[in-house]
Amino acid sequence: MNILIVYGTAEGQTQKIASFMANIFHENGHNVVTANATENPPTPEEFDAILIGSSIHLHKFKSSIKSYIKENLMGLNEKLTGFFSVSLAMASNNPEEHEAVKEITTSFLSKLNWKPKHIYHMAGALKFSKYDYLKKMTMRTIAKKERPGEEIDINLDYEYTDWKKVETQTLNFAESLQKLKLHEQT
To answer: What positions does the domain Flavodoxin occupy (predicted)?
Structure first.
């Protein structure tokens, strides 16, 4: 089946996750197109399923993702769809941070009137190598709050993405796609 993954990324972690998901779909016999939401991504019509992912910064998703969903809402609501958020908050040891991500996501999707069948939340990364000095200091402060007791060196990058979890979620989405295909054949 044909799957489209559209992503919005700031430092590249969401793109990395989208590529990882695409590889899993390929390994399971699906055709996959990945597209950055800022680079004129394809519309949903020619695909059987669509996954859309965005990083969260300052409690907001990427504006390019918001625009893509608004412009393609009718097509998205007619397909098997999923949404994945990527944030540092999901790497937090604090369950309240996880709940905050879920609330931000629910509010975002509700305002757009989009109802994806699957919603996933993934931990992102700290990419200090891509930050200017002020952002390094800000992100280190946030990271220390999210992960108390952990030493954070602004000269290193930290990846918190749980790749096994991403694989499980991707396979879960692929399973839904298989069920849809079987249902259509009967």
So the answer is: 4-146
DSSP assignment of 13-30: HHHHHHHHHHHHHHHTT-
Render pLDDT for 54-101 as a digit per residue (tens, 0 to 9). Answer: 999 889 999 999 999 999 999 999 999 999 999 999 998 889 999 999
Q: Which CATH number does the domain 2-124+160-185 belong to among 3.30.930.10, 3.30.2000.30, 3.40.50.360, 1.10.10.10?
A: 3.40.50.360
Measuring CA to CA, which residue among 172, 169, 174, 143 is closest to residue 17? 169
pLDDT tens by residue, 134-174 = 999 998 998 888 778 888 999 999 999 999 999 999 999 99
93 in Cβ contact with 146 (< 8 Å):
yes
pTM, to two decimals:
0.92
